[in-house]
Design brief:
single chain; 162 residues; alpha+beta; STM4215-like; 6-stranded mixed beta sheet
Length: 162
Amino acid sequence: MARQDVRNAVATWLQQAQITTLNQIFTSFPKRINFQVNSFPGQLSRAAGVVFIQSESEERLAIGGAYDGWKRVDYIVNFQIYHQSMQPKPEDAMTDFDILIDAVKGQLRAGGHRLGLPDGSVIWQAADPGISATYSEPVTNDGGATETWASITFTVTQMIRA
């Protein structure tokens, strides 16, 4: 199992939700975000998300004797969301942001323990025991858009025979 497998599985699960204002999901940081990509005409709020593995830890479980067992690998996944809104009222921009955040967290909760995967080969459990979030204060850029950032953090666990 590889870190890339975890990033791809999380990105695929979030993409399956087809969250209206989440126009792009990356498995690594892009050099630049073009908020026009995958947007539709008249869409006032747009967002891009990045699946980032912030840290990881391993623990050996000596189940099966001296030469057999399992490794539990916990990845701390930080799904970073970059939201840009051209809503004329800041309250409407924040409402769009709130709807986006609620939809992402709802999709993470809806995945069972394995984010919709049929077995535990890539993800044994995800977003358990919980999800935490951090938000930036909204700022208005020179073009008049309201920009807000979020970090939704959760643990993804793999069990590897070792």
